[in-house]
């Protein structure tokens, strides 16, 4: 599975401050690493210890300014909240415990309910272990959560998978021949267009696109995504550049170069979940394309050995970045077609040394098309395998930002 975070995700309304005089370790830590200044908030061994208190904060001798009171022994029921345990083992038992499959359920619940619900009144709790989802919420929210859990544990959801395909067309003029085949759908992301079309019409359109000289298939339809799963298709390469020059010291010598690196390439993250009636598929699509169009040179005059001046060019990246983060729902008997617009082109080119050029170094552009199609499991098993040099789906590391 894609998410690597602690098994227990506890979302509560209020944040309880440390008890006055408390010297134990802080209960709050950054998911992506400590954001505190170097050396602060540690106990001398480099580990997070007592909470960080900046100079002049008023924390003298362990005293705290904020007033605290003991919490209630009984959970408040100001809005009629109730506690329920959901058995999620029919879904999670398909995977190893270290894969954290329960996080997929938590993610979709938060997408459906929103995150604000869990951090405002009334008090709500959402906690997931390998086999059990524990929820403290109002009956109305429980109804939403119950349906979401049903979609994961329903054995019928495993009968179909989502396939996705990424192709490039050099010109957006392909739309002129396809206008009668496409039905537009609402897309909120700027510059992105979406359509649904029947599978028969998609076969006609794909044959027409493949006959064009500017058509390229970046990723074939061999990648499948079962309902309730998340996968990432990614390919990047580092672009190194000279970002700055540190002048030589008083003793003379040469300037010290400061080099940096930019990851250039593309990343496509997909999460799929079929509806209970089996008639629709939902997918969350996150895409990112980074292209370094040019490294702008800036001449820097430095005084070298013997007082002689030397000119060295530092480099300033000129970049194009494109992002998409949308949630779509469409009938399983139709194909969802997304156009990212004419953007920086992720493409395969002859290798330059050991590193493949993923994006066109000449600032080339193309219309990137993402095709999402639902297929029965027996049909998806017959799909061709990926070509050499074509990226494959991988699970991402821990990254919680912007997931919902």
Summary of the model, kept short:
With 404 residues, the protein is mostly beta strands. Helices cover 13% and strands 38% of the residues.
Report the strand count.
14
- Give the H and E element order: EHHEEHEHEEHEEEEEEEHE
Total of DSSP H or I helical runs spanning 4+ residues? 6
User: Strands of the biggest beta sheet: in what spatial order?
Assistant: 5-6-12-13-4-7
Largest sheet: 6 strands, antiparallel
Notable characteristics:
mainly beta, flat, disordered N terminus, 38% strand, 6-stranded antiparallel beta sheet, 404 residues, 6 helices, 13% helix, 5-stranded antiparallel beta sheet, 2 domains
Q: Care to describe what's here?
A:
This protein is mostly beta strands and 404 residues long. The chain has two domains: 72 residues; 236 residues, no CATH class. The protein has six helices and 14 strands. The protein has a six-stranded antiparallel sheet with strand order 5-6-12-13-4-7. Strands 11-10-9-8-14 form a five-stranded antiparallel sheet, with no helix packed on it. Strands 1-3-2 form a three-stranded antiparallel sheet, covered by helices on one side. The longest helix has 15 residues. The relative contact order is 0.15. The N terminus is likely disordered.
């Amino acid at each position: 599975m894609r998410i690597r975070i602690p098994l227990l995700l506890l979302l509560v309304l209020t944040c309880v401050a440390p008890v006055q005089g408390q010297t134990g370790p802080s209960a709050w830590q950054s998911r992506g690493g400590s954001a505190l200044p170097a050396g602060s908030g540690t106990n001398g061994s480099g580990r997070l210890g007592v909470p960080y208190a900046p100079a002049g904060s008023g924390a003298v001798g362990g005293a705290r300014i904020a007033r605290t009171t003991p919490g209630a022994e009984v959970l408040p029921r100001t809005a009629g909240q109730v506690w329920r345990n959901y058995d999620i083992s029919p879904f999670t038992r398909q995977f190893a415990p270290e894969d954290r499959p329960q996080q997929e359920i938590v993610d979709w619940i938060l997408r459906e309910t929103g995150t604000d619900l869990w951090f405002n009144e009334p008090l709500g709790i959402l906690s997931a272990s390998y086999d059990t989802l524990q929820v403290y919420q109002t009956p109305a929210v429980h109804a939403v959560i119950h349906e979401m859990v049903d979609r994961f544990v329903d054995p019928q959801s495993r009968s179909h998978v989502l396939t996705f395909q990424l192709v490039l067309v050099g010109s957006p003029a392909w739309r002129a021949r396809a206008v009668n085949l496409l039905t537009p759908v609402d897309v909120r992301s700027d510059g992105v267009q979406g359509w649904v079309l029947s599978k028969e019409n998609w076969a006609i359109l794909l044959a027409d696109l493949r006959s064009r000289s500017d058509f390229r298939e970046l990723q074939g339809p061999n990648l499948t995504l079962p309902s309730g799963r998340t996968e990432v298709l990614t390919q990047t390469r580092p672009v190194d550049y000279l970002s700055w020059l540190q002048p030589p010291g008083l003793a003379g010598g040469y300037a010290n170069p400061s080099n940096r690196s930019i990851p250039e390439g593309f990343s496509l993250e997909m999460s799929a979940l079929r509806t209970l009636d089996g008639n629709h598929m939902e997918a969350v699509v996150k895409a990112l394309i980074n292209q370094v169009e040019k490294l702008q040179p800036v001449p820097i005059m430095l005084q070298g050995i013997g007082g002689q001046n030397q000119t060295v060019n530092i480099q300033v990246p000129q970049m194009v970045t494109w992002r998409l983060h949308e949630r779509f729902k469409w009938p399983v008997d139709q194909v969802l077609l997304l156009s990212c617009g004419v953007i920086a082109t992720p493409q395969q080119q002859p290798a330059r040394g050991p590193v493949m050029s993923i994006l066109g170094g000449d600032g080339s552009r193309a219309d990137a098309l993402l095709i999402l199609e639902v297929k029965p499991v027996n049909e998806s098993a017959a799909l061709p395998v990926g070509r050499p040099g074509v990226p494959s789906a991988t699970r991402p590391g821990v990254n919680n930002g912007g997931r919902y």
